[in-house]
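For concreteness, we quote verbatim a single protein encoded this way:
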Amino acid sequence: MTLTPEPPRDCPRCPRLVEYRRENALKNPDWWNGPAPSFGDPNARLLIAGLAPGRTGANRTGRPFTGDHAGWLLYATLKKAGFAVGDYDPNGNDDLRLVDCMITNAVRCAPPGNKPLPIEEATCRPFLMDRLALLPNLKVIITLGDVSRRNILRALGRPASAMPAGHGAEGEAGGYMLLNSYHCSRLNTNTGRLTPEMFEAVFRRARALIEA
């Protein structure tokens, strides 16, 4: 059976998200306006799972965490932890490359208000399941926020309750170690709920687990 880790550019599965894509395309025809494909190393031992593309982030640029506030902290942290090299540009016009790491999203299309519906999470989950299946060296998964945590667990055939929520929580599923972090959104960083030091600690832990 052929696995499909990335949806087609014109994926029709979620009517509300398709309509939102069309609305954005009418206003901004030069944007990506489609499912944001995973980005990174196909031999990665670390997978980072976000929630969904931001309207002016990956929905604009076509690359996860590129174009909005969250990308600055994420890619700076990845470079510090040795999971990225090169320079990050919020428009994607850069030489950034991920090393032993891949980034994906639980939901691949931008949802209104950054809030996918449960049915949209479930509908998109087969792509996430296939993405996991096609990472032969995967050892550690970092989930950014509760939506990501729930969807990764369900993609691995586990209930959402199989791993606690909260920053720094750890669990095991499908033979992988799971680490949860607060999402690196502007809301979390501006309020101090997530500091750079807290975020870096999760990636240091991931590095230790990978190298163990």
Observations:
- The beta strands are 39-40, 46-50, 84-85, 97-98, 101-105, 140-144, 170-173, 176-181.
- The longest strand covers residues 176-181.
